[in-house]
Design brief:
Strands 2, 3, 4, 7, 8, 9, 12, 15, 16 and 18 form a ten-stranded mixed β-sheet that branches. Strands 1-17 form a two-stranded parallel ribbon. Helix 4 links the parallel strand 7 and strand 8. The chain is globular. The N terminus is likely disordered. Helix 10 crosses helix 11. The protein has a single domain, classed as Rossmann fold (3-Layer(aba) Sandwich). By secondary structure, the protein is α/β, with parallel strands linked by helices. It has twelve helices and 18 strands.
Length: 423
Amino acid sequence: MKARLQGVLLVALSGFILTFVGCDGGGGGTVPDQPLPSTVVSPLSLPGPYAVACSNIAQDFNQVAPGEDAEGYWEGSPAADDTPRYVTDLLADQENTLSVIVTAPNDDNLYGSFAGQQLEFVLLACYPTVADNPRADYQLPTGDVVPHMQVDADLPLFADPIARYPMIAFAHGYRGSPLTSDYLAAMSVSASYGYIVVAPFYGDPRFTDLTVDNLRDAGALLTNLGDFTALQSLRALSTSAEIDLMLSDPQWSDHIDATQIGGFGASMGGETLLLLGGAGLTTSLEFAQTQVTVDTRLKAAVGYIPFFGEFFLPAFGNDQSGLDSVTLPYLAISGTADTVAPIIMTEQGINRLAGTRELVSLVGVTHGFDVASTNDIYTWALTFLDAEVRENPAARQQLSTMANVAGGGDDRVVIPYNGLAVD
């Protein structure tokens, strides 16, 4: 066992050194002779032009155990006595709440002890609604509200009942939920710009109960690698199942443009969307990687402080080589002071991508939502989604010269947008 651990640490240390001495990035690389962007753009107005409403997520908060809180159920955290919990334990109207059942394939390499199991994932959808929507906001115990929430068997009340809207598959970060304040706000902002936004409650601690801090701990990750791999793989499968549901449910399917589906993911959610795009996931201590799935309906994705792994365990195989064949257009927005999702790992991965890509840094930002950069984050993200999901030529042209967003934080292009060159 001691020799095995030493071997693991040697592999980890080797990866760390290679990263810093400039190992081959492979993949697409930086576009030769591409001019550096120089245009400063005005931030988008927040929120956007549409009022926002959301699907039924009614809960009975009297069911919260003494000494616990609703957030633990939303996140899937076990109780103090290790009793499993999930948002389904609080739902007051499960029949009218969106959810999907995912069956994990019989693949021990990706799903470990969860292989073959059926697992439920609850969903929240937010969408552009009429300005005079009469439905009440739904009060959460955190002080946040779900805007104009549907109740009972209410149908969605769209801003334009005959329009087909683009959709965003929203992937929250590790141990979060769609009702976590920052994520709920991000979903609402995206919906206010005319997107139907759908997010699963991943319930990550149902699969492995690592903390954000020990995502940086080699020992914690390496000893829980099987469960950690299952967690990441199931996130991708549940997101694909979410798209299946939205395109088949008659309440939603007639209002979604199936040719315009994008993604927005934060932290591990940024990794989730790349797995959905066909990336290979690290499945061994020797950095072997295996493709989880590929959902070609996803046209483009944005990752905010996206998780590309750690120096001792890259997310996408050796030197991020699992990204080499991924053509999913992808924008990464990373913090230069982020030690949970280091920007150097992100840069290595973005350079591997075979299609349209861009990397923007937020100077001095750590791992979390940076309030000072609010307008920067949403302006970059929505411009990229408009360019690649809605195929808006003006947005593509803007990205090709866009250096940073006026005001806010210190945002800078690290790897320029190559969308026009790819076309």
